[in-house]
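Hi everyone, sorry if this is the wrong subforum. Our group has a chain we'd like a structural model of before ordering constructs, and none of us has done structure prediction before. Sequence below.
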Amino acid sequence: MADLPSQGSGRGTQWAIVAVLGGLLAVVAVTGYFYAQSVRLDEEKALAESDAIARGIAAFIEAREENFQKILEAYAGRFRFREAIRRRDRAEALIHLRQIAESFPDLDRPFLADPAGVLWAVYPEAPEIYGTSFAQRDWY
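Answer:
Right subforum, don't worry. Here is the predicted structure as C-alpha cells:
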C-alpha cells in the first residue's frame, strides 16, 4: 500500500509536466505566429516604401525628360537652326548646339542625326563619331 501514493503522485507529476510542456508549446506556437506576422508586415511596409520611392523617381525623370523635350522643341522653332539642319551645315548647327549646351548644362551632349540615325553634328565636337549610326539604340 505504500506504493499507491507514489504511483498517484507520479501520475500527477506526469500530468503537470505534460501540462507545462503543452503550455510552453502553445506559447512558442503563438509567439512564432506573431513573429511571422510581424515579418510579413515589415516586408509589406518595405515593399510599399520602395514602390513609393520608385514612383517618385520615375515621375521626376519623366518631368525632367518632358522639360528637355520642350527646350529642344523651342530650339527647333529657330529659323536659322532649321535652315542649318536642312542644308546640313555643321558649322552653323554647332553654334546652336553650343548655345543649347551652355544654356542647359544638364543636357549631356546635344547632337544631330539624320533620319537613319547617323550622327552628323555634336557639341562638344567629336569628329571620330561623325557618321556613326545610333539607329540600333533603344532611345533613338
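For your construct planning: The mean pLDDT is 89. The helical segments are 3-76, 79-87, 90-103.
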